[in-house]
Amino acid sequence: MSFEPIGLKPEWREWLEENARQEERSPNDLLNEAMEYYSHVRQREKLNQEIAAYTEMHTELWTTMPGTWVAIHQQKLVDHDNDRLALYRRIRAKYGRTAVLLRQVREQPVEEIWWRSVRAETARR
Length: 125
Description:
The protein is α+β, with helices and mostly antiparallel strands. The protein has helices at about 10-25, 25-65, 85-95, and strands at about 70-75, 75-80, 100-105.
C-alpha cells in the first residue's frame, strides 16, 4: 500500500505557524499535539461503539459465558478468556494499540458507580 505525501492546505499551514509563534512552540509540536488529541477522540468514539455492541450482546454473553472476560472489536466478539491478563496479551499482540473493549461479563451490562464526596455546606442563621 502506498500513501500520497502528507501536505497541509496553505491556510492550515499559516494557522499552524501563527499559533506556534504565539505560543512560542514549534509547528511540529502543535501538529503532533493535535494528532494525539485526534487519536484520543477517535479511540474514545470506537470504544463507545464497542460498549454499545457489548450491551446489545450482553444477554447472550451472560447466558453462555458468565464471569468470562470478553474482547469486543468492530462490534464483534473476537476473543474471550477466564484470565484477563492472558486475554489482554493476545489482544495486544493481534491488534496493537487499537482500542478493543475488554470487559468481564457480569449480571448487569453496565456497572453502577457510586461516588461519595464531602460537600461543604454553609451554616444558616
